[in-house]
Write a structure and sequence with these properties.
This protein is an alpha/beta fold. The chain contains 15 helices and 20 strands. The strands form four sheets. A seven-stranded mixed sheet has the order 1-2-6-5-3-4-7, sandwiched between helices. Strand 12, helix 10 and strand 13 form a beta-alpha-beta unit. Helix 1 packs across helix 4.
């Protein structure tokens, strides 16, 4: 009998995710983990080694045990690093000479979700070519199980977080001693997620006085997991009350970082990458890479440094691959995800935190002052339910009616008017059953008008919603 994937299970370049006990069950996790192990075994005579990490969600230990057994059942050796940020898990791949990794995390999704993310031997998530080959074992190909004498083993690694922290401290232009002398006061919100096992220790190593919030990694998220400005009211208050120089907030698996300025105001997650790029480009001149939905403020930062910027489809792996291709100095996504090749090619909140602190050290100014010096734009984000149907007619209508001078169809449709500092991006989400509409302009009214034009086109072309 063929294995059936539930309709409400999200399968994409980001992995496989769903609501716990509904779309995501132990049976689903076992099938996908075994399929990943079988994929890694292709063409290998020896047993592949697979790193396994998880965030703090309450379903994480259960799914980690299921994934471990499934990997063993196809003859893979598992290196369990336990509770750890996603970037820590990916960083551990090369240390162990592993064939890949599974991360049990739903990243920014609500607490009732969980997921599996799959990474390759180079420490990056599976790309558009690798993912389908792995998923062929889920529904189309038989999974070759190991016999009694070929079952995989299990070992643990309790030092993965320490090695990751050391790698961040080893960033070539990070002035660790200077930061220790400066002793920044940092308000930190780890949302009771995996970042709590890495960020506090890193900041203390950098000489920071940490004022903590939600540092118990028990998976009982006290706010919405996505670290967008509207979810950071408690951190804003903590910054004001404690007199902190900066506030830092992570998502549950600590691959994204959002910032609150010394004025006690969340500055928007798009500025994390812009600030990090500012300091990196001060030390090396090379291209910058980001996705199609990231603020054009990054273009301004790149132009000021005299380097080109390249845009890739949304998705960490797409940005990372483009960074490799162009030899980027830094890259990432406008959701607070910063990728620095000096450490590894994956989004990393710890890297982002270190870079922003280095920028404050080098400039000697307040964060609110640095933000005020950047061009100001307004991003409006909207979403609609999606139940299927082609968007080609909608894309065609938008292209013909809006008359944008720049059109990009790498990932959905992005229309831009560079001279007017406006753009709009329509794409199906890879992590939720929705359509995303993101627009940016110098004013909120202009950005909202672009969103409304897209909504009108969707209505006219009767795309299911």
């Amino acid at each position: 009998m063929a294995f059936e994937i539930p309709d409400d299970l999200m399968v994409s370049v980001s992995g496989v995710r769903g609501r716990v006990g509904e779309a995501l069950t132990p049976e689903i996790v076992a099938r996908f983990a075994a399929a990943f192990g079988a994929y890694l075994r292709e063409g290998r005579s020896e047993r592949p080694r697979v790193v396994l990490g998880r965030d703090s969600r309450t379903s994480g230990p259960m799914f980690a045990r299921v994934a471990t057994a499934a990997l063993q059942s196809v003859g893979c050796d598992v290196v369990d690093i336990g509770l750890a940020p996603t970037p820590t898990t990916l960083y551990a791949i090369r240390h162990h000479g592993a064939a890949g990794a599974i991360v049990v995390t739903a990243s920014h999704n609500p607490v009732e979700w969980n997921a599996l993310k799959f990474a390759s031997s180079v420490g990056m998530f599976l790309d558009a070519d690798e993912g389908p080959r792995m998923r062929a074992y889920v529904a189309d190909r038989p999974i070759p199980r190991a016999g009694w004498d070929a079952i995989g083993g299990v070992s643990t690694d309790d030092a993965a977080v320490d090695r990751h922290r050391a790698a961040v401290l080893g960033i070539p232009f990070l002035d660790v001693e200077g930061l220790r002398r400066r002793r920044f006061r940092v308000a930190l919100d780890c949302i009771r997620g995996a970042g709590a096992v890495l960020l506090p220790g890193l900041l203390e190593e950098l000489g920071c006085e940490v004022v903590g919030l939600n540092l118990e990694p028990d998976g009982r998220f006290p706010r919405e997991p996505e670290p967008v400005a509207e979810n950071l009211g408690e951190l804003e208050r903590l910054v004001r009350e404690s007199g902190a120089d900066i506030g830092l907030a992570t998502d549950p698996d600590a691959d994204r970082l959002s910032i609150v300025s010394d004025a006690g105001r969340a500055i928007g997650e798009d500025l994390t990458l812009a600030l990090a790029a500012t300091v990196v480009l001060g030390h090396r001149k090379a291209p910058v890479v980001t996705n199609l939905s990231t603020s054009r403020v990054l273009e301004d930062v790149a132009a000021r440094a005299g380097v080109p910027i390249h845009r890739a489809p949304v998705g960490e792996i797409n940005v990372a691959r483009r960074m490799q291709a162009v030899g980027a100095a830094i890259g990432g996504e406008g959701n607070g995800g910063v990728i620095l090749p000096d450490v590894h090619l994956t989004r990393d909140a710890a890297v982002a935190a270190a870079l922003v602190l280095q920028l404050l050290l080098e400039t000697g100014g307040r964060l609110s002052e640095l933000v005020a010096e950047l061009p100001s734009y307004v991003i409006v984000k909207d979403k609609l339910p999606r139940r299927g149907g082609s968007l080609d007619d909608t894309y065609g209508l938008l292209e013909s009616t809006l008359g944008a001078p720049e059109i990009d169809r790498q990932d959905g449709l992005r229309l831009s008017w560079p001279a007017e500092a406006r753009w709009v991006h329509l794409r199906p989400s890879g992590t939720e059953p929705i359509l995303r509409i993101i627009a940016e302009a110098p004013t909120a009214s202009e950005a909202r008008a672009l969103v409304e034009r897209v909504r009108e086109a969707l209505a006219q072309t009767r795309v299911p919603s």
